[in-house]
Structures are given as structure tokens and as C-alpha cells.
DNA sequence: GTTCCGATGCTT
DNA sequence: AGCATCGGAACG
């Protein structure tokens, strides 16, 4: 299990480091293959851009805590608070490959809304520290630097200059990465 | 194959 | 009003 201090680094560094790690919820688990870093209030794509609100408050608190919210009224999104000294920061987990307790089908964890459904994550897990048997992240597979692709984040075109920043991290060519097939 | 659109509810 | 999405319908 990764200790809470592991998340107390720059948000983009944590986003990259989460690739290949196992996200475990109860008896279900997936290997993280896609993440996005959302920086502090200056990041116009981040929920933190409006400052601290009722929804995003945990982003401003201690690292290693889950931030779960409902998107488009339909999908639960699972984030992990991660930052060093910035005012706020979180990593959106966008895709996992089945590891345990899931159908052996890359599609079930492909996309941020799909993975939360597959792993049974919802706002019930919001604000939980990731240091309990029930919900945690563990080191699993080492991912080589040349197997990591950085690109622009998905669905943030409104964010002006921040939309193009390479803050999305994927394992190159992995079948569970969201989006179109290459 | 691509593009378009409705569902659905919470946030500012 | 708009959104850190998804799946199905419509179209070529």
C-alpha cells in the first residue's frame, strides 16, 4: 500500500507515478493505465479554479484523499488529492485494466465513468483517506518512461491556454486507455 | 467508419 | 447555463 506521504509531491509527478499501480476497492482491483493532473486555482481546467467550494474542498486539504464527484448527472469521477506545496491539486483516474474481481474485458475500465462503475466507486467514497484495507493504491507494475505518453487533457477545451498543457498520462497502446483506437 | 444528441443532476 | 461522459442512433 502506498503511504499517504507518497501523494505529497507535485500533482503531475503523482499522476505519472500512478500508472501501473493497482487501485483496490474491497475485493475489486484494476491497474491504472490513464490519469490526468489538475493543478491549483490557476489551472483553468481544474475544479479548483473557483477557489475552495463545498464540492472541491478536499482538493485543498491533505494529499492521499479521494475526491469523487458526479459528472453530467450520470457518471461518478474518481480523483486522488495530490500536491506538494500548491494550494490545491488532484489526479483524475481515467482508465484501469481489470486485475481482480472484474470481467477480463478491457472495456469495463476504459473511461473515467466506466472504471468507477466497474470498481463500485461512488460519492460514498468521497473524502476517504487511501490508507485502509477497503480502499487504497498499491505499487504493482513498473512502467518505463518510454511507454508513457503525455497529451492534452480530455474535455477541457474551455480552459484557454491550459487546455493544451500535456497533463494527461497514458500507457502507450494499452487496450484499456480511453478514446479512439490508434 | 464518423458525427450528433439525449440522459440526468449538480455546480456556479 | 454548462459540465473532467457514455452509448446509441443517424448518417455516409
Would you write up a description of this structure?
The chain is mainly β and 182 residues long. The protein has one domain (4-171): 3-methyladenine DNA Glycosylase, Chain A. It has 2 helices and 8 strands. Strands 1, 2, 3, 4, 5, 6, 7 and 8 form an 8-stranded antiparallel β-sheet that branches. Strand 1 and strand 2 (28-38) form a beta hairpin. The longest helix has 8 residues, at 112-119. The mean pLDDT is 95. The protein binds a DNA duplex (12 and 12 nucleotides) through strand 3, strand 4 and helix 2.
Oligomer: single chain
The class by helix and strand makeup works out as mainly beta
CATH class: Alpha Beta
- Strand percentage: 25-35%
Number of continuous helical runs: 2
Task: Please tell me the overall pLDDT.
Answer: 95
Number of strands: 8
Q: Give the N-to-C terminal Cα separation.
A: 33 Å
Order of H and E elements: HEEEEEHEEE
CATH architectural grouping: Roll
- CATH homology group: Methylpurine-DNA glycosylase (MPG)
Largest sheet: 8 strands, antiparallel
**CATH fold name, please?**
3-methyladenine DNA Glycosylase, Chain A
- Uncertain residue segments: none
Amino acid at each position: 500500500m502506498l503511504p499517504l506521504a507518497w501523494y505529497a509531491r507535485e500533482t503531475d509527478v503523482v499522476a505519472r507515478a500512478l500508472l501501473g499501480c493497482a487501485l483496490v476497492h474491497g475485493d475489486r482491483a484494476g491497474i491504472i493505465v490513464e490519469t490526468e493532473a489538475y493543478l491549483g486555482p490557476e489551472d483553468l481546467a481544474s475544479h479548483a479554479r473557483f477557489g475552495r467550494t463545498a464540492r472541491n474542498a478536499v482538493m485543498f486539504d491533505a494529499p492521499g484523499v479521494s475526491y469523487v464527484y458526479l459528472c453530467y448527472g450520470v457518471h461518478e469521477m474518481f480523483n486522488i488529492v495530490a500536491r506538494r506545496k500548491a494550494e490545491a491539486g488532484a489526479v483524475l483516474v481515467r482508465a484501469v485494466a481489470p486485475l481482480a474481481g472484474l470481467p477480463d474485458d478491457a472495456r469495463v475500465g476504459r473511461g473515467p465513468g466506466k472504471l468507477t462503475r466497474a470498481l463500485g466507486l461512488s460519492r460514498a467514497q468521497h473524502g476517504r483517506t487511501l490508507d485502509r484495507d477497503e480502499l487504497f493504491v498499491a505499487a504493482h507494475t513498473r512502467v518505463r518512461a518510454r511507454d508513457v505518453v503525455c497529451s492534452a487533457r480530455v474535455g477541457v477545451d474551455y480552459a484557454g491556454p491550459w487546455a493544451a498543457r500535456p497533463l494527461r498520462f497514458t500507457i502507450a497502446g494499452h487496450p484499456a486507455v480511453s478514446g479512439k483506437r490508434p
